[in-house]
Amino acid sequence: MKKYILGLFIALLAFSLAGCGASGGTSKSETQLDQVKSKGVLTVGTEGTYAPYTYHDSKTNKLVGFDVDVIRAVGKRMGVKVQFKESNWDSLFAGLNAKRFDTIANDVGVTPDREKKYDFSRAYSTSQSVIVTRKSNTKIKALSDLNGVKVAQGLSSNYGEMTKKAGAVIVGQDDMSKALKMVSQGRVEATVNDQGAVLQYFKETKDKNLKIAAIVPSNAADIAFPVLKGSGLDKAFTKQLQAMKKDGTLKKISEKYFGKDISK
Fold first, then answer.
1. Where in the chain is the domain with CATH 3.40.190.10?
2. According to the model, what pLDDT value does residue 28 have?
3. Strand partners, 263
4. N or C: more exposed end of the chain, with fewer CB within 10 A?
């Protein structure tokens, strides 16, 4: 009888442990969206040095910018708090991969290579690329003119990939303002970046050594929020962005930073 009771106890214990294992399996099926809702916090990676998209107000030091305001509005509508973690551009996707961030708000262009690795929300704006040189430079008038030319770019940015394909000699610099200073000082011949960000830099610094030498129409890109594959966050973001487009919120934020509506 004792052996029977002991055997029954062991069987019940094994069944109990199996149940625990099944419960653990259920938690594994929980999506990243579920986790964000459960925590009530959406963690966002951003540079904080890329005006007018993500930067610190010179008077208050508060993190502001077009992308910052857009993701804050998305989070508010989802009913979660938005927490920013600042990092340089070249480490933002590494942070997303390691789940240090749930998404990135940093004028991220949707590219075929990125779509293979990440899911994206609907586009909320578009980006136009420009080539910046010193005013005295008369040789660079198109992307093809960057062949064999020293260009300051972030190594993992779509601008870096584009200029590398054009045959440029890449000098690694992921901070746009520092890259523009390198051009102004004659340390490199050019840099390529977003037109809005470049115009904002010109406005703030009044650097008379620089000019927009050319627009790169082929590199116009949709801007969206990247998330890990299967996270469910892309659909949640898209729902809120569609509502923000419809009710004029995206237009209002866009006009605040650009003086015109660049939302999509």
1. 32-124+224-258, 128-220
2. 56
3. 125
4. N
